[in-house]
Predict the structure of Putative spermidine/putrescine transport system substrate-binding protein.
Amino acid sequence: MTKNWVRLSVSALAICASTSMVLADSMDDLIAAAKKEGTLTTIALPHDWCGYGDVIAGFKAKYGIEVNELNPDAGSADEIEAIKANKGNTGPQAPDVIDVGLSFGPAAKAEGLIQPYKVATWDSIPDSAKDAEGYWYGDYYGVMSFLVNKDLVKTVPTDWSDLLSPEYANSVALAGAPQTANQAIQGVFAAGLSASKGDIAKAGEEGLKFFAELNKKGNFVPVTGKSASLAQGSTPIIIAWDYNALSWRDVLAGNPPADVVIPKTGVVAGVYVQAISAFAPHPNAAKLWMEYLYSDEGQLGWLKGYCHPIRFNALAKEGKIPADLLAKLPAAEAYAPAIFPTLDQQAAAKEVIAKKWSEVVGADVAK
């Protein structure tokens, strides 16, 4: 099992070459400075996303720093806007750190919205998943999946084309709005990748056509899908990252029974990235937060939440991944077809999907 997961991770993200990295301060100095600030302000971190509830609790317990949590249900674009809106604000509405989709990292750097910082474990983060100057860095990844309410859906869909069947009328939802939420954008992209038979250049446009047809057939539900809406029956099928779907399945605890399906085609893997706001009111707490997230403890915290931590290879090589955690994950074979779009490919698809969704699909997604 471990070897399969290592092979998956290696094939998806090349292990980085050793880079020189020098911390600005010693860990003791950083901890002291962060404790003096006393607070860290986060944004868009639902507790059931990647196990963030336990990760935040672990950080607070370890360092005694309060965590001010803003807008847990925000999307990546909302996080960027929050930095822009609070450039001169040192109050509680100014985020110190962000966790956004891969394409949002370079865009935030280009706009001067984030600052560089390299954690102590920098060398074990793959080069393909980090900015060379340290402005943003991959934290975890997952693949797009279907979460299915088995009480209401008698035939569980196994691929994107299945969702167009009449039996899924008023059933299929995205986990966010494609204009702002990376999870929703990648859901549309994945559907388009399947429809275009793997042609990444056409995936954005084909994804919009797919959802336009889904909406025309009456299968698309323009509501943000969550575990509660799945349980209530308003969104019996939710397109979401596998780690969210698996976490929501656990929360439901069989009421109703739910399946998590990784589709046969259009298996898109999405890397999310961390960054520190260039205007962070608590810059030392922000740096300490990053140190915690990229430590072995923080990375395993994400793995407990079903996310594939970016340092997976290094942890596996050192024998630091508990067998019980690996046993809870889907079989590695299901992830074998996963495609990791490049930054340019993601940016191009995001541009098309976010701008043309309302025009082509005609169904704005409510929160």
Observations:
- Residues 142-268+338-360 form a domain with the D-Maltodextrin-Binding Protein; domain 2 fold (CATH 3.40.190.10).
